Amino acid sequence: MGTWEYDNNNLPNWADGDDDSGTFVFVAGNIGVEYNFDFPLQLSLDFRPEIYFGDEFREDDFAADIALGIRYKF
Q1: Distance CA 2, CA 55 (A)
Q2: Is the pTM of this model over 0.85?
Q3: Which of 28, 31, 66, 74 has the most CB within a 10 Å radius?
Q4: Which pLDDT score, from 0 to 100, does residue 66 have?
């Protein structure tokens, strides 16, 4: 959950903009798999879907991130 505010009073005189503010809520989760080799190496792949609700914080209501991890395990 969060809020944002845009105040054009801090902009130079030549810049034109409107004051704006809003709130948002987003839900996120993590899904992942990992593999341990016989030697001290571990690989992982993670997927993080995010769903946004709110006052036009984003143009779309869905985002996703993917991560690849490589670890030396000792």
Answers
A1: 11
A2: no
A3: 28
A4: 94
